[in-house]
Amino acid sequence: MVPLRQPDRGGAAAEAKRAPNAHIEQGDDAVAANTRFLNPDTLYKPPGYSHVVEVTGPGRTVYIAGQLGLDKDGNLVGAPGDFKAQAVQTFENLKLALAAVGADFSHVVKVTNLLADTKYLPIFRDVRNQYLKTATPPASTTVAISQFARDGALLEVEAVAVIPA
Amino acid sequence: MSDLRFSSPASMPKPRGYSNLVEAKGPGRTVYIAGQLGYTPDGKIASDFRGQCVQAFENVKAALADVGGDFSQVVKVTNFFTNIDDLQTYFEVRDRYVNTAAPPASTAVQISRLARPEALYEIEAVAVLPPK
Asked: In 3-state terms, what secondary structure has residue B119?
């Protein structure tokens, strides 16, 4: 197990300690050497995300479409209204999209979370934190929206990932 | 040509007219286009969804043209509707603009209100163009 890095310790010294391919060799908590997750002291402390993520090129940038809680056959998972089931499936879909380009959640630099209601935030955070690198989470925006493209959907999450060249 | 790969992996739910992921390899120019409403350059807006949607796409097209790009280089769009029932009309308009063989990644949601009370639709886009 690699010790957890604090998101606000991503300075030059921390960068220097990382091997170029640290994200491949070091397991789940490793961060790509070209990516820095920051929480400036001048901003409030964010719960479970980073305020600033800096990526230094070259690399591959991957844009992932907004994912819903749909299984491979396109069916909404869980009983109607089961937010947790949909949230887990949504993150599984993101994981599949990342895997398809040889990436994982450590490469995600920004997520946008669209929820049917902010009352789901505690469940959302529980599920999200099982997938994201909680020591160096992506930048994030979360908003409540009134309706999704799919009836019965309770959340949608889109992501941008950057993988070193 | 930018090194762009549009993909919908078989392991994921099949997307309807968009790609589940788009991979952009550097070097290139990444262009972020602000959310566009259905206003013409002289400030006119249609009262119907289709009219607004067409003009919003025209506005994105103009933004792309301004940087020497086109819709084939758009990697991600985000669509906001005040009534998601307009989705079918959106699909028809969209497919006349995007490269339907390699469409951008996409998100579409209904929100309660846009910045202007008469606006029914807004689209923002990210494009990746070859280096200059």
From this structure: coil
